[in-house]
Amino acid sequence: MKPTFLSYSLMGTGAIAAAISMSATAANAFVITNTSATWDNVTLTNGDIVGSVGEAASDSNQVVFREVDGESQVRWGEAVYGWTWEEKWELETREVQTTERQRVEGWYQNRRGRWKYGWHWKNVTTTETVEEWVDNGGWVAPTADYKSGLGFAGVSDLSLDVGEVFSIGSLTHYNQTIWSDVAFGTASDFSLALDFGDSGIGSQTFDFSFTVDETINQQTVCPYQTTDGLGCSDKIAWDFSVDETNSFMHNGEEYTLELVGFANQVAASSIVNEFISQEKANNSADLFARLVKVDSTKDIPEPASLLGLAGLSLFFVRSQQKKRLA
User: What are phi and psi of 315, to 5 degrees?
Assistant: First the structure.
């Protein structure tokens, strides 16, 4: 659910060094043992919602929710590449008929139509049972690895203070080539779980919503910065940065979680609130956040003043190229 107050617009520029250098105090220090996330309620281009508030993921809507090597993923769309031929050799039995002209003895009609007994030529058909190996295989549809989608891998053992910017994990956009005439995802709910261990806070879940602009590859002018020779790149961002449906108490203060941006490191001018994902690659960036006091949120500078975009080239913060077979 999108919040109705305290939400921020993260489109401005500025320095983030002040927020990053904020020192921890014993009274406000937090310890997070691990982070994790789940995806839900994918909005498709045809308007359908797949997830807990809509239809279930299935072959018909081409949506897959899965866990792979500790990473939570949602995949969508019909893959263009990745079809494979699967052999299925089976031993089959069949009957084979052969016809031969043979000289036989017996009754026969001569050319005048009279019956005679003796040797004559006759077509003789024989049936033989044979066994042979036959490939009854077929083309197998691509696995979910060839679909587009999003993934999140959490982190562990964090120690931080209120307002301190920290990486909550790695967000990956699986930008694989999919057919544009089959419905695909434009947004997905994202539930982030923070485990505060035995601090008394317990495990807290914060809900956000990511948007994905899956562009059409064949465009004269691509809407976002695109590597030459590839289809038009896509953009990943979020609808809102603060979850106002959940908060927790710590040392008499109320806190919630705020998303800050994407980057490959905590450094001035490196964190951005959206990133551009190049086609035919798995593009990843750390997702940064901070814990903020609910009753003093208005006094904290808006994230727009904390973000240094340093040009559109920083949107594409890290690319883990995992090329697929064309």
Answer: -60, -40
Residue with tokens 């982190």: 155
Write the DSSP assignment of 139-151 as a string of letters: EE---GGGSEEEE
**Residue 279 vs residues 15, 46, 50, 150: alpha-carbon distances, Å:** 30, 22, 24, 14
Tell me which amino acid residue 281 is. A
What are residue 122's phi and psi, to 5 degrees?
Answer: -150, 140
**291: number of Cβ within 10 Å:** 22
- Residue 7 binned pLDDT confidence (cut-offs 50, 70, 90): very low
DSSP 17: H
Pairing assessment for the beta strands 148-154 and 71-76 based on DSSP bridges: antiparallel
Radius of gyration of the chain (CA): 32
- pTM to 2 decimals? 0.71
Query: Does residue 128 surpass a pLDDT of 50?
Result: yes
Residue 21 to residues 17, 162, 262, 263, 307, Cα–Cα distance (Å): 6, 12, 18, 17, 14
The span from the CA of 315 to the CA of 55, in Å, is 34
Per-residue pLDDT tens digits for 57-69: 999 999 999 999 9
pLDDT tens-place string over residues 189-209: 999 999 998 888 999 999 999
Provide the total of helices (H) and of strands (E) in the chain, helices listed first. Answer: 1, 19
3-class secondary structure, 18 = helix
* CA-based nearest residue to 168, from 16, 35, 29: 35
The whole-angstrom separation of Cα 269 and Cα 172 is 21
How would residue 159 be classed by pLDDT, with cut points 50, 70 and 90? very high
Residue with tokens 């039995």: 93
